[in-house]
Amino acid sequence: MAQRQIDTLKAQRASAEATLAQAQAQRDQAVLNLGYTTVIADQPGRVVNLTGAVGQYAQAGTNLTMFVPDEIWIVANYKETQLDRMRPGQPVDIEIDSYPERAFHGHVDSVQPGSGPAFSLLPPENATGNYVKIVQRVPVKVILENPPTDVSLGPGMSVVPTVRVDPSPPLYERLKARIGQWRRQG
Questions:
Q1: pTM score, two decimals?
Q2: How many CB atoms lie within 10 A of CB 76?
Q3: Cα–Cα distances in angstroms (integers) from residue 56 to residues 29, 36, 50, 62, 146, in the given order
Q4: Residue 75 and residue 155: Cα distance in Å, rounded?
Q5: Helix, strand, coil % (nearest 5) of the chain?
Q6: How do the domains of the chain map onto residue ranges?
């Protein structure tokens, strides 16, 4: 009888260990699911247009908010004929329509290697054989330097960026030309 009781206790222990393992797996799954509820941005910024609320269930792929990064930039579409001397790093004066009395400054970050329509979802196609030359617009990214904290700047605002390019040849080219003149003279 004692032997049967020992077998019963061993079976109860095995059942309790299985129940414990199941409870630990459920806890681990709950911790993992809780980790999915925290949304972390990969850069500093502001949350705007928040449509989700604490405790609300959301389906995968549902937009719950919009995010505006703290780094402020402008994408200006310049004519391709204006890009001859435009280079990354050049200073930019920026006029923002919302703040006409303020002066803002930035620099050229990058010039896209192609026109806007070339990278669009449905690029324009001229299959008729007629060739019409149209000056294309090329996106230029301008980074705002030291954005003021006392004004509200955000996506969609109207601005007028003016890139300051040096129309004269670089110093190296001027010196090279001057040396060529000296050699021809003497």
A1: 0.60
A2: 20
A3: 19, 13, 12, 12, 38
A4: 10
A5: 30, 25, 50
A6: 2-36, 71-168
Residue of 117, 156, 111 lying closest to 135 (CA atoms)? 117
160, two tokens: 């007028």
| Secondary structure (3-state) at 75 | strand
Measured CA to CA in angstroms, residue 72 lies from 94, 143, 147, 163, 181 at distances of 12, 6, 7, 17, 47
Is the Cα dihedral 47, 48, 53, 57 positive or negative?
negative
Cα separation, 138 vs 118, in Å, equals 10
How many Å apart are CA 137 and CA 126, to the nearest integer? Answer: 18
Instruction: With residue 57 as reference, give the H or E element that holds it.
Output: none
CB 45 within 8 A of CB 70: yes
CATH number, span 71-168: 2.40.30.170
> Locate tokens 């919009």: which residue?
66
Q: Apex CA 15: angle with CA 9 and CA 18, to 5°?
A: 145
pLDDT (tens, 9 = 90+) of the chain, 186 residues, equals 888 889 899 999 999 999 999 999 999 999 998 888 777 888 888 888 888 888 888 888 888 888 888 888 999 999 988 888 888 999 999 999 999 999 899 999 999 887 767 677 776 666 666 677 778 889 999 999 988 888 888 888 999 999 988 766 667 777 888 898 888 886
